[in-house]
Specification:
The protein is α/β, with parallel strands linked by helices and 430 residues long. It has 2 domains: 217 residues, UDP-n-acetylglucosamine1-carboxyvinyl-transferase, Chain (Alpha-beta prism), CATH 3.65.10; 208 residues, UDP-n-acetylglucosamine1-carboxyvinyl-transferase, Chain. α3 packs parallel to α7, α5 packs parallel to α7 and α9 packs parallel to α14. Bound molecules: shikimate-3-phosphate. The site of shikimate-3-phosphate has 10 residues, from α7.
Length: 430
């Protein structure tokens, strides 16, 4: 466990930063590159712990994958060349690897056991186990398959139409991946639109998928061809710098090459609604995904109400939005975000506990939180709860405290942003 002293710094953030590649897109590029035939080259890959777990899993199934810095080369030989892994697969902290990989494994004639770290072992897997069992996969695990360790015996599946009861791109993607390996049409209907990177990535590899409102339909047994994927910057990582610049006096930052897929840009909408001085320029496409440069500077923010359809579009950004809210004028109320309880930690509890310890008046609710604005932050020793996004939120919060803040368990930040503290140092000026 690493303890990091975050010194009180009376400085601002200035300059231009290009954040690491998108976590969701990096996972999917490895998955489709491993299912496709031919060479796939991924550039600006997120070389963070979660995405490396996806690479390890496919290497265990015999896929040659080479990683050099942030470039990944996969020599795909198609689905039929995948081999039954010799060992249980360790998926670390990565919920995305687990739920998407289970979708793939459901369609393969292998017996595989998967396990993870303490956090992953506590996260609900029944949300993906149920539809995959409906398709015909044999799965079992702790508490009747609700939690890891889980074992799966996949094989020939039946296509289903799945009405997902949870707003989760991981569940949608897991079922669509199983559908890709199943003869016939598999479809998933969502309660609200979630990130659609699986759909974009399938198309980039030469596959097709039909989208009709909240329903996605995939045909099985499509042949995919290796390709070149340039991963856009992760807006969920950029969010910490967008927030820091918005609340630290005198700041002005440009975040370049950030992915601005509309299913992910809730943080831009929230900042705009709060009154931030920001703009998105140079909009273009990289690897089938929209990208832009975001300019933001310090400004006075206003508390707002956040609920409904926007929640899946900001689900990973709510911890940093809570910090933004603590600096805004007036109260901010976040509702409909019960999914936060099932993240790397219970993020309602973690945000409330850490921000309270730092002097913020904040109350947790069943499905969100209520945050008072114009709060003065004080020094404290606070725990990341082993959750990368809580750790980064605390690091940004420390920029507002005149007293030292000590972050316990800071190493978890490497899950999605290994160079976070270097990048922060790079843009902090006196
Ligand atoms: C992800 C989907 C979201 C998000 C996670 C990544 C993905 O999870 O929180 O960080 O890549 O599909 P849910 O699907 O559980 O909402």
């Amino acid at each position: 466990m690493t303890e990091k002293m975050l010194n009180p710094i009376s400085s601002s953030l200035k300059g231009t930063l290009s954040v690491p590649g998108d976590k969701s897109i990096s996972h999917r590029a490895v998955i489709f590159g491993s299912l496709a035939k031919g060479t796939t080259t991924i550039t600006h890959f997120l070389n963070g712990e979660d995405c490396l777990r996806t690479i390890d899993a496919f290497r265990e199934m015999g896929v040659p994958i080479e990683v050099k810095g942030d470039t990944v080369k996969i020599e795909g030989n198609g689905v039929d060349a995948l081999q039954e892994p010799l060992h249980p697969l360790y998926l670390g902290n990565s919920g995305t690897t687990t739920r998407l990989l289970l979708g793939v494994l459901a369609g393969l004639p292998f017996h595989v056991t998967i396990h993870g770290d303490d956090s992953l072992t506590k996260r609900p897997m029944d949300r993906i186990v149920h539809p995959l069992r409906q398709m015909g996969a044999y799965m079992d695990g702790r508490e009747k398959g609700k939690y890891l360790p889980l074992s799966i015996r996949g094989g020939k599946l039946n296509p289903i139409h799945y009405q997902s009861p949870v707003k989760s791109a991981q569940v949608k993607s897991g079922v669509l991946l199983a559908g890709l390996l199943t003869e016939g049409k598999t479809s998933v209907t969502e309660l609200a639109a979630t990130r659609d990177h699986t759909e974009h990535m399938l198309t980039a590899f030469g596959g097709t998928i039909k989208k009709d409102g909240l329903t996605s339909t995939i045909n099985g047994n499509q042949s995919l061809t290796g390709t070149q994927i340039d991963v856009p910057g992760d807006i969920s990582s950029a969010a910490f710098f967008l927030a820091a610049a918005a609340i630290v006096k005198g700041s002005k930052l440009v975040l370049s090459d950030v992915g601005i897929n509309p299913t992910r840009t809730g943080i831009i909408d929230v900042l705009q609604k709060m009154g931030a001085t920001m703009k998105v320029v140079q909009q273009r496409e990289i690897g089938g995904e929209p990208v832009g440069d975001i300019t933001i500077e310090y400004s006075t923010l206003q508390g707002i109400e956040i609920d409904g359809e926007i929640i899946p579009r900001i689900i990973d950004e709510i911890p940093i939005i809570a910090l933004l809210a603590s600096q805004a004028k007036g109260k901010t109320v976040i509702r409909d975000a019960e999914e936060l309880k099932f993240k790397e930690t219970d993020r309602i509890e973690a945000v409330v506990n850490t921000l309270s310890a730092l002097g913020v008046s904040i109350q947790g609710t069943e499905d969100g939180m209520v945050i008072s604005g114009e709060q003065t932050l004080k020094g404290a020793t606070v725990d990341s709860y082993g959750d990368h996004r809580i750790g980064m939120m605390i690091a940004v919060a420390s920029l507002l405290s005149k007293e030292p803040v000590t972050l316990k368990n800071s190493e978890c930040i490497a899950v999605s942003y290994p160079s976070f503290f270097d990048d922060l140092d790079r843009v902090l000026v006196d």
